Amino acid sequence: MLEVLAVLVTALLVPADAERAVVRGAVRLGALFAVHGAPAEAGARCGPVREHYGIQRVEATLRALDAINADGSLLPGLQLGAELRDSCWAPSTALRETIELVRDAIAPARARQHSPAASAANCTSQEDAPASPLLGVLGPGASSAAVQVQNLLQLFSIPQVSYSATSRELSDRARFGTFFRVVPSDRHQARLLVALLRAHNWTYVHALHTDESYGQSGMAAFREEAARGGVCVAREEALRAAPGPREVEAALRRLNGGPRVAVCWCEGRTARALLDSMAREPYLRLNLIASDGWADRRDVVDGLEPHARGALTLRIRSPYLHDFDDYYRTLSPHTNTRNPWFRVRSLPNSTS
Ligand SMILES: *[C@@H]1O[C@H](CO)[C@@H](O)[C@H](O)[C@H]1NC(C)=O
Ligand SMILES: *[C@@H]1O[C@H](CO)[C@@H](O)[C@H](O)[C@H]1NC(C)=O
């Protein structure tokens, strides 16, 4: 709670200069996406724009809103609006952006006086209109950020629906009263991991996890399921979300000897740091069995593909949307003005 207060105070004193995408409507949903990657260190600027889990999620949301608003049978007579903000894959940024959303909802007059920076996205016309009621907030994606955002939203009884925060602790109704999600809790993923290990007779393994909500809560679930399923964990190592090479190598050295298979309940950046160290020190190589923090993310393996060979990763099943590809390919930085992040980088030649 102290952290919430500290950020709340900062946000009230310093107007945010963050960009946002706004769809006007009679009511509004807030939405948080990690359009930019995490800052390299605390207090630094956000990382580079992420296409796959950043820009594409923003576009998928805008397109879903178009479809809902175009269908007269879904919300007859009501235009659904949204305000999409960038959480930079950092809990503190997610919290600050949520405060902006909530502040506009609870004190619209004050918010209008205080947001000169919205001009970056040329939102001046929105500034004159009163903020429409905030129905709820979608996201953010990372469990650690979702926990922070929920601590604030539940004070105002504002519902929050995450699209990818799987951490098991978020199922606790007593602590997270207005949190909902459209993905299963990590309890199920832990069961699947154990079943996968057993199917390969890998019943003696090492375990690695990222030392924050997602990794800790996932590893706790994995430990329970492993004990129940007869899988022994030889040694466990926790790594920071974006560990340095020395930290990773020291952990891998401690795992050297014993089983060659390691379960990795890691955030994408942690998994990438592991692959990177194994590329430099091949004798420390482990066969990684990873959770959905890695899943099919290209930014995790980019340039390190040979060293990821043999790894197995889990991903939540979601059908491929071919008509999203068609929509995405028609977008151009010159005409797609409603997405302020789209023009930041040149159009990539790949989609997924
Ligand atoms: C911003 O909006 C104003 C008023 O609608 C318009 O005249 C101006 O051209 C816009 N600027 C940009 C950069 O789109
Ligand atoms: C696992 O062990 C059992 C019993 O020893 C054996 O029948 C099975 O083929 C093994 N499976 C794999 C994938 O090695």
TrEMBL record:
The cellular component terms of Gene Ontology attached to this UniProt record, alphabetical and capped at eight, are: plasma membrane
Keyword Membrane in annotation: yes
Q: Which UniProt keywords apply?
A: Cell membrane, G-protein coupled receptor, Glycoprotein, Membrane, Receptor, Signal, Transducer, Transmembrane, Transmembrane helix
Q: Does the record carry Transmembrane helix as a key word?
A: yes
Q: Name one GO molecular function term.
A: G protein-coupled receptor activity
Membrane topology classification? Multi-pass membrane protein
* Primary localization: membrane
* SUPFAM superfamilies linked to this entry: Periplasmic binding protein-like I (SSF53822)
Q: Which InterPro entries match?
A: ANF_lig-bd_rcpt, GPCR_3, GPCR_3_CS, mGluR, Peripla_BP_I
Q: What is this protein called?
A: Receptor ligand binding region domain-containing protein
Species source reads Bombyx mori (Silk moth)
